[in-house]
Design brief:
It is built from nine helices and 19 strands. With about 375 residues, it is an alpha/beta fold. A five-stranded parallel β-sheet has the order 3-2-1-7-15. Strands 11-10-9-12 form a four-stranded parallel β-sheet, with helices on one face. Strands 4-5-6 form a three-stranded antiparallel β-sheet, with no helix packed on it. α1 links the parallel β1 and β2.
């Protein structure tokens, strides 16, 4: 009987995990199913572009995973029974021996009537609303993190006729180096974006509000018997394996995980892909009786687009602390674009550029994994 691996979610983390598992494991011994609510891969790091009228490349999951050995099942996950090892979806139940949970995150605590860009449909709704606005209309972006900065600059550049502002609890880019903060202030001034700093509960009027003040994970994990953090993320060990259920792995935003430095990883694509690779390699190693890889996940930079013609790259330490140096302007645009394209390419070519040998599952290892 084949070892059944089910991957929930086909974002950057889930898609990479599924592809890497297909490359590592022999199809005669394993059955890999990728479950996703959307039939297409959503390039989440570009949703601020989609919201401002730019069209993104369509990548159908059925085409992406054709001839890889990964079965794509378009369905919405309703529940996970971690004791019976069953996933319930709107298209029926799916049994698993090993589960990779990669359902990601969405915008947190979005007020009524506010927009967000945490998903494709919400970005398209904002796009439609922005198209309705006439010259002089006001747009307020709430949240001064990476998403808020990218949304505000993208909107201001695409629609210079709008009055765009950003509200943040601290100072603009207060986690960045002085060089990066100075460049950020210069770009905001050039684009005419008003910045409201140290806001905490005050009233600001706008025709359209875009909410980017934090992310929340999908609530399904918290409704299971899996051990989760106060934020609802699945608590995992250094190999992305659930500390309460060894047959479950969590990757990307859904995981409460630490990197190679021992510090918690932040919700980001920069965390999602490495955790997916590590989880897939750990699963493959355990099923084939090989050595489990070491967690060496660390950061090198934070890339922030500032519209289509500007950007900045803040160089950071492996535990994500800013270095004094930062890349700005046209060169930063090229680096940011290269990283975005590379992330999308890794999904579009799920079984390329990895060791080609598909290893056989050992009976003893598979039985042990299923029993744990």
């Amino acid at each position: 009987m084949k070892h059944r691996i089910v991957v929930l979610g086909a974002g950057y983390a889930g898609a990479n995990a599924a592809g890497r598992l297909a490359r590592r494991l022999h199809p005669a011994d394993t059955e890999i199913t990728l479950v996703n609510a959307d039939a297409e891969f959503v390039e989440r790091v570009r949703l601020h572009q989609l919201a401002t009228g730019q069209d993104l490349k369509v990548r159908k999951l059925a085409d992406v995973f054709a001839n890889t050995g990964v079965r794509v099942r378009v369905a919405r996950v309703a529940a996970v029974d971690a004791e019976r090892k069953i996933v319930s979806t709107d298209d029926g139940d799916i049994a698993y021996d090993t589960l990779v949970y990669a359902l990601g995150s969405t915008a947190a605590d979005v007020p009524e009537h506010a927009h967000n860009i945490a998903g494709k449909q919400s970005a398209l709704r904002l796009r439609a609303r922005l198209e309705e606005l006439g010259a002089g209309a006001t747009v307020l972006v709430v949240g001064g993190g990476l998403t808020g900065i990218e949304a505000a600059t993208e909107i201001a550049e695409a629609r210079p006729d709008l009055d765009v502002s950003l509200a943040t609890r601290g100072d603009l880019g207060d986690w960045l180096s002085e060089k990066a903060r100075q460049h950020l202030r210069t770009v905001f001034d050039r684009l005419g974006i008003t910045v409201h700093v140290h806001t905490d509960g005050g009233a600001l009027d706008a025709d359209v509000t875009v909410w980017t003040a934090g992310f929340a994970v999908h609530p399904i994990a918290a409704a299971t018997t899996l051990e989760v953090s106060p934020s609802g993320q699945i608590v995992v060990d250094e190999t992305m394996r659930s500390v309460s259920h060894p047959d479950v792995y969590a990757v990307g935003d859904a995981a409460f995980a630490v990197g190679g430095s021992g510090q918690p990883l932040r919700m980001s694509c920069a965390s999602g892909v490495p955790t997916a690779h590590l989880a897939a390699d750990a699963i493959a190693a355990r099923l084939t009786g090989r050595e489990v890889p070491e967690n060496k996940i660390g950061y090198s930079g934070q890339c922030i687009s500032l519209g289509r013609s500007d950007a900045l790259v803040q160089w950071v330490t492996p535990d994500d602390q800013p270095k004094p140096s930062a890349l700005t302007g046209k060169m930063a645009v090229r680096v940011k674009e290269l990283i975005c394209r590379s992330a999308a390419w890794s999904v579009s070519h799920p079984t390329v550029m990895m060791p080609s040998r598909r290893r056989r599952v050992t009976t003893a290892s598979a039985v042990l994994e299923s029993a744990l």
